[in-house]
Structures are given as C-alpha cells and as structure tokens.
Specification:
With 247 residues, the chain is an all-alpha fold. The protein has eleven helices and two strands; from the N terminus they run H-H-H-H-E-H-H-H-H-E-H-H-H. It is found in: Membrane.
C-alpha cells in the first residue's frame, strides 16, 4: 500500500506541475487561458502592484527555500526522501496556480510591435524559448527532475542513486539552458504591458539570484569537476566558438 501511495502521490504531483507548465505558456503568451499576465483580475494601480509583487515574492520564497540543501535535510525528516522532489514539484505547481488565479491587470502599454514580420519573429522567439525549456529537461533527465524516477525506484524497491554529472547538447553551450529558455519566454512578447514587464523583471531577478545559489551548491557537491565546467562554458549567453564546438 505504501508503494502505491508513493507512486500515486508522485504521479499527481507531476500532473499538477506539468499542468502549471502548460498554463504558463498561455499565461505569458496571453492566449487560450481565462487569465493571463496581461488580463488578470481588475484592480486599482496600487493594489495591483502590491499584490503582484507579493505573488512574485511567494514564488521566489517557495522555490529558493525548498531547493536549499539545508532545507532538504530538514524536510526529509518530515516527508520520505522518495517524495521530496515530488513535493517540491507539487508546491511549485500550486504557487504558480495562485499566481495565475490572483494576478492583477496593469494595462499600461510599454511597447507594441505592429510590424507583421516583427510580431511573427518575436512570437517565434517565444516558442523557441519553450522548446529550449522542455528539451533541456530531457537532455539531463526529465523524470528525475520532476520526481517520477524517485517514486518509480521506490515502487521497484530499489534505492535512489544520484545521476552522474553530464553536459549533453545545449549544456555544452551554456550551463543553464533551462533558465535561458525561461528568460527568452519572459521577454519575447510583441505586446508588453506593465504587468508583463513586472512579471518578466521580477522573474529575471529571481533567476539570476537563484543561479548563483545553485552554482554554489553544485560546486560544493561536485568540486573541481564543476569548477572546470564553469571555466569552459558560460552561464547563460553562448559564445560563438562554443556553439561551433558543440556542432
């Protein structure tokens, strides 16, 4: 029974997290969803600013605290290690759902690309960002990243083993292609409202801070191996010579 509950919990967490991922595409692109970054809950300007900032802070706090090794060591005294990652995915999905539900409209227009070729180009860049995000998860291990490998091993009665450090494909060009993809999707908008700008700026600031914490953790775990990787490969912006080598 315990194994069934573990797998069921992991699968549920994954579905909620992946549903939030799919909704985020429509939320940022302002299509196919009832509430988006440009069309949220109507509110006065000050209320919209305060609520949206609090929502961004909630995401940053959840993501940062739960990702820290010290928190994980404490947290796994409360929840089994087999569902620690699934719980993180579930919490992320729920915080994102809160953002999607409570995001306030800030309609002031910052820019609007009206040239048809320009709009198509920016939209193509938006979709390219999402392709980079999703493909990056599979280049390492999508199922480990989202907790499914952990619950599968628990189902099989096998201990969890850490994945070896690898740098396939896009990881030879930049150290964090997943975050690069997110940054592209945040800013690749032909029509930028103040709400979208706040969301993009807040998430960008968080990503840049979080990457420094993550790299500190990776260096602590991998030591010289990760230091060598850092010396060869840029964090987010690929260098032309690296792109040529990756090909």
């Amino acid at each position: 029974m315990k194994r069934i509950l573990t797998v069921g919990y992991g699968a549920t967490a994954y579905l909620i997290g992946f549903a939030a991922f799919l909704y985020a595409i429509g939320f940022l692109g302002s299509f196919a969803v009832p509430r988006s970054v440009d069309h949220g809950v109507p509110a006065p300007a000050l209320e919209a600013l305060v609520v949206n900032l609090l929502l961004l802070c909630a995401f940053g706090a959840q993501h940062s605290v739960m990702a820290r090794p010290a928190f994980k060591r404490w947290w796994t005294r409360v929840v089994p290690e087999t569902v620690e990652r699934s719980t993180y995915v579930l919490a992320t999905g729920l915080v994102l759902a809160l953002i999607f539900w409570q995001w306030r409209t800030m309609p002031t227009l910052i820019w609007d690309v009206t040239w048809p070729v320009g709009r198509i180009s920016v939209r193509a860049l938006f979709w390219l960002g999402w392709v980079i995000v999703l493909s990056s998860t599979f280049m390492i291990n999508h199922f480990d990243l989202f907790g499914l490998r952990q619950v599968y091993l628990a189902w099989r009665g096998r201990p969890y083993t850490d994945l070896p450090f690898r740098t396939p494909l896009l990881y030879r060009m930049v150290r964090h292609p997943l975050m690069l993809g997110f940054l592209i999707t945040l800013w690749a908008s032909p029509r930028m409202t103040l709400a979208h700008l706040l969301f993009a700026a807040g998430m960008t600031a968080y990503i840049l801070l979080a990457l420094r914490w993550e790299e500190h953790d990776l260096t602590s775990v991998l030591g010289q191996q990760y230091d060598d990787y850092r010396s060869r490969v840029p964090m987010l912006i690929p260098r032309p010579q690296i792109i040529q080598r990756a090909k």
